[in-house]
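Blinded run. Sample ID left blank on purpose so nobody reads anything into the name before looking at the predicted structure. Input follows.
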Amino acid sequence: MIDRKEALYDHLEIRCPKLGGQVTFTYCRREGGTLPCQRTIICWQCRFPVEAFLKSILEKEEWDRWSHQKPKEKMVTLLELIEAAKQRLQEGGEKP
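Blinded prediction complete.
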């Protein structure tokens, strides 16, 4: 269950420089599974105090793990996105 505080900005949309299309803050907040996308602060800082918000909703250990991650290379990210899309298509019974 999502806490009301966590959902505060989830409806906001922005163009994702990584994906090239519109995404909601919900996507950015959970792009890394339970952790935000590495670009979240850069992308959202002009819209609201995103760093303070993330610090308030993440556990200290999560914040430390997330803030000390080394960003993935673009090619690795693209390959992971392609694999995830293939998986979703297979699970949905559609052909790629």
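Unblinding after everyone has recorded impressions. The mean pLDDT is 86.
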